[in-house]
Amino acid sequence: MSSATPRRIAVLGAGGFIGSHLVPALLARFDCSVEAIDTDLSKLGAHDPRLQRRLSRIQEPGLIDDVARRSDLIVSLTALCTPALYNTDPLAVIDASYNDLVPVVQSAARERARLIHLSTCEVYGRRALDLEGRAMERMSEHETALFLGPVDRERWTYACAKQLLERVIWAYGSRGELDFTIVRPFNVVGARMDFLPGIDGIGVPRVLASFMNALLRDQPLELVDGGRQRRSFIAVEEFVEGVVRIVARPEVANGRIFNLGNPRNDVSIRTLAEELASAYRAREPGARFAGFREVSAESFYGPGYDDTSERIPELSQAEALLEFRPSVTLSEMLPGIIDDYVRRYAPRIALASADAAPAPQREAVLA
Ligand code: UGA
Predict the structure, then answer these.
(1) DSSP secondary structure string, 169-194?
(2) 152, 270, 330, 336 — which has fewest CB within 10 A?
(3) pTM of the complete model beyond 0.85
């Protein structure tokens, strides 16, 4: 059974964006060992004798049972969480969000390990509606319905699979068979988020990395459906602090679902693009700026995409139980994020463009 101060923590998906911030925070805060499991741990910079790195898929036979047996706490972060995949590779998304994770829940219950599972704000769906279908301003863990789109809008494969896993976890917990906390992150942003297409990944990353990719390559920032949709962005450092408090306070966090986000940073995607572009130009005054381009969702993501018009977290539960009050504004967080992308990617993009440049003309070589 879980103890108040975990001694052995396993983090599944430790090499991803959030894992690479969470693992060092756990090591800093707790007198514990951390087993970091992922197929790629290159983003995880922490060096600590209490950290054990394990390069593995979570589906590896026997792995999750072994991990659950030797851990007090499992933090589960693995996901395919870029929306461009939801309608283009839905079966892989359902596997990663549900089928691969049911054994994690079962093993945690069997071995009496506490489970903190990162779900998603996507479970709220297209917009915030109360239980009678009336519009709400904020998405609340207990008062907001989960309003997904029709099945042919495959965007909702991810949200639906994540919701079903939440229900599995809840069923174990409500029967006294699992100590759990479910976290619903709301648009966490920060250094090391996602990937840049053609550099360290393929496909379409989430909006922050998509916009940074455009800025670094002097291409226009593409605004899907004009960028009218709104999101509330939270700095990864503040989000991670919320998760650390959940780890530290099982007596209030167990058996609950928590929204973690920052309602004060609710902006349109167009505003995000404008603020990011102006912060980038302040850092790189010589860079060319190709502006913004409006694109349709169908041309950007393909058929079956759908979207959330606005997504603002209700935080009263996290405030009351965790004293969670994020305060970093978008304009405060953007310069540090831009700096990370420029340092990690600008040299690689310059190299790639030099390689792709046409060979010098014969005359020029002779001259
Ligand atoms: C995604 C995931 O589905 C969530 O699980 C996750 O919690 C969330 O990101 C997150 O970052 O926390 P979403 O906010 O829709 O959800 O993902 P983004 O790819 O970041 O898109 C945000 C908005 O920007 C969407 O309306 C999208 O259409 C738009 N967008 C994206 C653009 O206008 N241009 C782009 O280049 C990329």
Answers:
(1) HHHHHHTTS--EEEEEE--EE-TT-S
(2) 152
(3) yes
| Cα gap 299→295, rounded to integer Å | 7
pLDDT at 360 over 70: no
Nearest ligand 1 atom to the CA of 223 is 33
Centroid of chain to Cα 104: 19
Q: Is 124 a catalytic residue?
A: no
Pocket of ligand 1 (CB under 6 A): 81, 83, 120-122, 158, 185, 187-188, 206-207, 210, 222-224, 227, 229, 231, 269, 307
pLDDT at 359: 59
What is the 176 CA–ligand 1 centroid distance (Å)? 36
* Domains of the chain, start order: 8-190+234-262+312-326 (3.40.50.720)
Catalytic residue among 98, 124, 158, 280: 158
Exposed (0-12), middle (13-18) or buried (19+): which is 282, by Cβ within 10 Å? exposed
